[in-house]
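Readers of this paper often ask what the protein records in our data store actually look like. The remainder of this section carries one protein's record, kept here as part of the documentation.

:::
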Amino acid sequence: MQRTGADIIAEYLVRERVPFAAGIPGHGIWTLVDAMSEKSPNLRLIPVMHEQSAVHLADGYYRATGRPLAAFTSIGPGATNTVVGVATAYSDSTAVLLMTGSTHTYMRGHTVLQEIDRVHDANNARIFEPVVKRWWQPSSVEVVPYVIQRAFAEMLSGRPGPVLLDLPMDVQADAADVEVPDPCERRSSGRLRADPQLIEQAASLLRSAQRPVIVAGGGVITAEASEALVRVAERLGAAVVTTWMGKGAISEEHELNGWSIGDTASTSGNALAASADVILAVGCRFTDWSASSYRPGVTFSIPPTKLVQIDIDSHELGKNYPVAAGIQADARAALEDLLTALDGARTAWIYRDSAWYQQIQRERQRWERVKAERRDVNVLPMTQQRAVAELRAALSREAIVTTGAGVVQAVVRQDFPIYEPRTHITSGGFSTMGFTVPAALGAQLAFPDREVVGIAGDGDFMQTMQEMAVAAMQDLPVLFVVLNNSGWISIKGGQLANFGRLAMTDFLCRDGSVYSPDFAAIARNFGLHGERIDQPEEIIPAVKRARATRGPALLEITVARDFPLAGTVKTGWWDVPVPPRLSEQRATYEQGRQQEQMR
């Protein structure tokens, strides 16, 4: 059957049950857009206002569901605008299919509109090379069936990640007699299981542990391994601490939940992890942010703590800490096998009888007292912690929350309890501003009848606030919450701590007055329900009013902008160099840096 390259891709997306494709239909991709439009309602096209947002939207959908979406852009600046989104997905190991337009094969090297060709003809795709698992640039229609099925196989196998199809305009439009492949025929299935000897070795180490701790990373959630994780924790009486991406791997009301680890994390998580005798790390990269820049005794004490590390990617095993057992495997499969091995001994073990359990409870209670210092304070403007606590009380347990970079991200991590996997969606390793809004749109597309709230600082929100238009056009009942403190307050806190003075962090007019748009009014002009709130007791009623509209809404909440109430609780260590001219700060910094294990 004669099919164009665009027809092949559109049909394959339908066969893969991809429900949405998001992007902007520029000239370099419009043949594909036309073909995809014929697949409605099985494949709906979602317009965005900026190409970066198309990738964040697809990313948010994947994190909420575990299933990929497609994003598309034209050649040139449209494609280049997606790089931030693709790098975010790559850092956080989320699957996104990006399709970009490319120069006609027979026009390559002639400097056609938006072609980059000085080093190599049609070289636009090379920009993406460090931030995709793989990219393809098919040269004829005949290879498109092969390329599209390989793209899905690469994107979803092993450690997930984004892939790129850079599609020449003539390859999209030309036709050939080809068959569209069956997705099931050329893809691996099942889960990568661990070496049984390594599982037994790990079980032996964990059986002997007196202070076991499990570090849950994003790989737990990706592998749908939360249930197995909790069963292993309960079997061992182990505290479970979480990375940024691992939040939600265990319900944060569970008595073994030790909360978060790292620099801007929890006192309980860091104390428990640092005092462990055996750590079981699952789907965790041990980034500097989660490991307090590898300063011993702050978050981890490896060694002497023994480390059992499970990861789908062998690249991560032993990369930042020595392992007593390094296990390459799917997280769920490995945890299930480990549970079987552990069930062979100490079957009468009741973890609540242990001294370690009592220590876990003391650390959890201590952390609650620390949080209360900012959360329960009655000041105006209110703290972000108070605002987030009111929001948590107004939302269902199953609500999905998205955040981007900034103080808001850390406050939600610390003060917004999560009870289910895939309900906390944040820009992790790349710490991307502008992620909150489009990621919330993706999650709401995934679950149109579920509460989805994107909580952003004003700096984060203004990077992609134009996507309110998508919420209005698609009538998505997403709730955007802007915690407005008129500045980049996370940067402000760092500057004050390290330099004792500020540069560019406050949003100020030339006369020195504080600047802020009226976000609630802007939302109303976009077609959303919009309210501005100054009092904590107004938040819950405002959320109810927003929900009653059954459409998109925005709440702008005025929050503290002066420290310490504007900041969050810093519980770990993060290596940010200080210049020698600041002698006192430099001395403190050097003292900490000298202790780092990576030196």
About this structure: The first helix runs from residue 5 to 15.
